[in-house]
Amino acid sequence: MPDISFREAIIQATREEMERDETVFLMGEDVGRSGGIFKCSEGLFDQFGPERVLDTPIAEAGYIGLSVGAAMTGMRPIAELMFGDFSLLAMEQIVNQAAKIRYMSGGQCQVPLTIRLTMGAGRSSAAQHSQSLHAIFAHVPGLKVVVPSCPADARGLLKTAIRDDNPVLFFEDKMMYNDIGPVPEADDPIPFGQAEIKRAGSDVTLVATSSMVGICLKAADILAADGIEAEVVDPLTLVPLDKETLVQSVRKTGYAVVVDEGVQRFGVTGELASMLSIEAFDYLDAPVARIGAAEVPVPFSPSLELPTIPNEERVVETVRTLRS
After folding, report:
1. Residue 146: exposure state from Cβ atoms within 10 A (0-12, 13-18, ≥19)
2. Annotated catalytic sites, by residue?
3. Which end of the chain is more exposed for a tag (fewer CB within 10 A), N or C?
4. The domain containing residue 81 runs over which residues?
5. Is 209 helix (H, G, I), strand (E, B) or coil?
6. Where are the alpha helices (DSSP H) in the chain?
């Protein structure tokens, strides 16, 4: 398996799906000749031309609405939102249209739409370009929510998203685009709703999403030096959620820490911790712990911004306190 970047995994999946299915097309701001603000569509305009790689105006509500209509009429659009924060400009189209049309039409109308958007802080993009809003969309029935944590998962899950007949929100942590990892050369979509154990362990379960998987793997290395073997579990998709794998891990270890870069209040950590507390109650030796981003708008200054993001030291300290 060749090592490629997270960015290249996104480009590969998009290119291969556009080659496989002529109904697949890409649209978004600067996705054409310039290759996207994060260069995640580089080379696609040259290969497929302006009819299938469409530069849009700065009008998120407009082109997300257009993509919903295209999906309803048999196309498979990939709509890129330059920053996940800008999804708020298209909430009507995503939440009240894309998420509900299949249900309101009794299944007569499908919306095979993939919306790619970023999440995560850490690059001094300030408060309006650094939010992690995936929990908002996981709250909406009719939407699927995907949070890949490595290049292989990004490629396989994006293929599945594009082939899905339902609207999918595909969140990419902007700090991971340069991450390198092995990716299978074969056309190998990854099914939704199947969590992956990234590291086996017997003493504590670390449930982590997106870039927090890497943080928890680093924390697991530190904890191993203390004789604590942490199991790191990546849900891969929040909707659908593989509860069984998460619960089985916690039943084995007796301890759980849920780590997510979204703000902790009313977020992913609360939902997963609640589920584990109910489903694995008789096996827990301590309450489920949660680690999320600080409850402040993301600062611009690195010295202020970086402390708002969960890191491996915080995970290690939480585990040690939990087991003490």
Report:
1. buried
2. 60, 129
3. C
4. 3-182
5. coil
6. 6-20, 44-48, 60-72, 91, 101-104, 134-138, 151-163, 212-225, 243-253, 268-279, 302-305, 312-323
Do 172 and 234 have their domain in common? Answer: no
Amino acid residing at 50: P
151, 218, 317 from 226: Cα distances, Å: 30, 13, 12
Please count the structural domains in the chain.
2
HSE at residue 272, side-chain half, CA atoms within 13 A, is: 36
Same domain? 12 vs 97 = yes
| Listed residues 153, 182, 211: the one ending a domain | 182
Judged by DSSP in three states, 206 sits in strand
* 81-102: burial string, b at 16+ Cβ within 10 Å, e else: bbbbbbbebbbebbbebbbbbb
User: What is the domain-level CATH number for residue 118?
Assistant: 3.40.50.970
Domain check: are 126 and 76 in the same one?
A: yes
pLDDT tens sequence across 185-226 = 888 999 999 999 999 999 999 999 999 999 999 999 999 999
CB 85 within 8 A of CB 128: yes
CA–CA distance, 276 with 291 (Å, rounded to integer) = 15
